[in-house]
Every structure is written in structure tokens, then in C-alpha cells.
Amino acid sequence: MSVTPPSPYHRLQGLVRLMRPRQWIKNGFVLAPLVFTGSFTDQHAVLQALLAMLLFCVASSATYIVNDLRDIEQDRKHPRKSLSRPLAAGLVTVRQALLLLLVLYVLLLAAWPLAPQVLPVIAAYLALNLAYSYYLKHQPVLDIFTIAIGFVLRVWGGAQALQVPISAWMFVTTLCLALYLAALKRRQELLQTGTEARAVLQKYSVSLVERYAEIAATGALLFYSMFVMSVRPQLVVSIPLVLFGLFRYWYVVEKLDGGESPTDALLSDLPLLLTVLAWVLVCLWALAGLKG
After folding, report:
1. How confident is the model over 56-63, as a mean pLDDT?
2. Residue 233, number of CB atoms within 10 A of its CB
């Protein structure tokens, strides 16, 4: 039985999906230094931060392509990924994916004169994710920390783009928040697809990753509060929003079966999305006019 090849439109659609633009929302972490240093009133700083975020979008898309190329055979056996992943579904060929990957790498290299301070951080991000795709994602605990460090690198990249010092509190808060999201992601994978989806899931249990998530959530709230009270007291009003957001996200995970994709969980739950938007607006309002 012959298989009809995808049309040019579906092929293009597959290439776009291969880059996972919905996941670019994670690169909003790059803008954290712009907000917390009060530099968002400086047009040049805004442009530099947005450029850094754009470069991280390119880099993250490249890592998704590498990961999908690495897992293509496994994804073809998965009931959901065999339809949702363009390579596994046959919408994009391996050759086309490699060409797109090359284009993304060239774009990053071409951006060196525009953001020389950011590109070394992106290089570290790419190297970390390459190690994750081929080795670290199979190592329990290390896999979760690798995901979290990717978010820390985003914050560091944003600080490098602005050439501003960044509080250590922000780094550890970002690490804890990312560990919280990653642990709950593993929880949902265990409950929804079992240990067959990822080999590393065989080394976890639901109760274990839930304890990881509890520790990380507590750490995120504690360190964020300490950061606010010691560095940015103007933001004390934002602490209840952070607490509500942590509670609401776990509600989405526990009762609405979200969380396997933090991006989908955020975009699909209106109260959670409004909480994040309110937190951003409160931060901008409280820090308006702040310098340094």
C-alpha cells in the first residue's frame, strides 16, 4: 500500500512544528534581569534583552530538533508522539530536519557581532542539551537538574545581554522553580504514559517526584521571598501571587491532568495565565523608574 507524500504546505507546517514555537514561552525567563533591574524603561536594554530571547528561541528549537532526531525510532512506537512529532509522523524527513538544524546554527553564528556576551551562554545551553539528549536524560535526578539548569542559563543569558550583575537569589529561585516544574512533568509522565515513555521513568515513583516537587516549590517561594525582602522590597506585594501560582499549577496537574507540558498547562488554564500576567504587571509597576 503506497503512502501519499505530504504536500508542500503540510511539509512546511511540519518544519514549523519541529521547532516547537509554543515552547518559546519558556524563553521569557531571559527577560527576568530586564524586569528585576528596572532596565525595562531603557529602550536599548529592551532591544538587547529581546534579541537575547530571540536567540534562545533559535537555540531551543535547535535542541528540539536534535532530540527528535535522536528519538525518532522510539517516537514512532509511541501512541501520541508518533502523531504529534513531525519526524515520527513522516511529515518531515531526516534530511530536511538536518538542513533546518544547520540553518538555525548558522543564524546563531551570524548573530555573534550583535550579542557577543550572550552567545557563549547559548553555546553552554546547546552543549548541555546535547548531553541531555544523548546521556543525561537517562540518568535519574540528573535529568531533572539538567532541565532546571537550562532555565538558569536563560536568566544568565538575559543578564549578560544587559551586562548587569544579577542577584544570587534570582538564580537559586529560578533553579527551584524549574525543578518544581520538571518534577511535576515527570509525575504526569508516570501517571499518563507509564514507564514505557522514558527509560528513566523506571527509576522514579510518583511519590518520589512529588516529594521533589514539594521541596522545590518550598525553596522557590522561600528564596523568592528572601530575594524580594533583601534586594527588591518594592515587590513584597507580588509574593501572594507567586504562592497562588504554585498552588494553582499543582491544582492543574492534580485535578486537570496538566503539567506534562508546563507550556500547555499555562496556556490552557485561564486563572493560572491571569496570575502570571498579574505578577508581571505588578513587577513592572513596582519597579518602574528603578535603575540598577
Report:
1. 97
2. 9
